[in-house]
Amino acid sequence: xxLAALLLAGFALAQTPLAPxxxxxxxxxxxxxxxxxxxxxxxxxxxxxxxxxxxPPSGPPLSGEALRAQTHVVAKxxxxxxxxxxxxxxxxxxxxxxxxxxVQDLVALGYDTEQVIAYFxxxxxxxxxxxxxxxxxxxxxxxxxxxxxxxxxxxxxGSVSLAGRRRAQKDAAAATASSASPTPxxxxxxxxxxxxxxxxx
Length: 201
What we know:
By secondary structure, the chain is an all-alpha fold. It has helices spanning about 1-15, 35-40, 50-55, 65-75, 95-110, 115-125, 140-180, 185-200.
C-alpha cells in the first residue's frame, strides 16, 4: 500500500508543470514572418551579380502586389528555354519557375523590364526574348508574313486575270473564224459544219 501511494504521488508530481524560476525571463514566441520579409530577394537565387551585367537598378524597389504584378509582366516577355513556345510566366517547367524567381528578385531590387531582359540575354542570348526586337534581321521576321500575303494575293489576281484574257481571245478567234467561213450551198454539208463548229467551242 505504501509503495502504491508513493507511485501515485510521483506520477502526479510528474504531470504538474514546473513554475518559472524567480527572475527568469518569460519565453519569447517568435513573431510570424511578414509578407514583405518573405519577398526579400534571396541572393543565392541570382547566379550572377546583376550589378556586374546591367549596372545599378533604374527604379525603386518593389514589394507586395506591385512586385507580383511587375514580375508577371516581365516573365511574359521571356521565353522558357524548355517549353520554347511558352513564356516563363506560363510554363510549368522547373527551369521557368527558377527563372521567374530570379525575375522577382531583380524586380524587387528595382530593375526595370529592359534591365531584367538584358540580364537573361547575357546568359541565353536574344533567343530568350519571346518577341524579337524590331531591328536588323528581325525586321524581315516581322514583315515576312505580311509580304507573303501581299505576294500571294497578287499572284492569284494575276492568274485569274490572265486566264480571263486567254478565254476572251479564244472566244473572239472562234467567232471570227465562224463569221469568216463561207456557208456551203449543200444543206447537209452546212449542217455538218455547224455541228463541228459547235463542238469545237
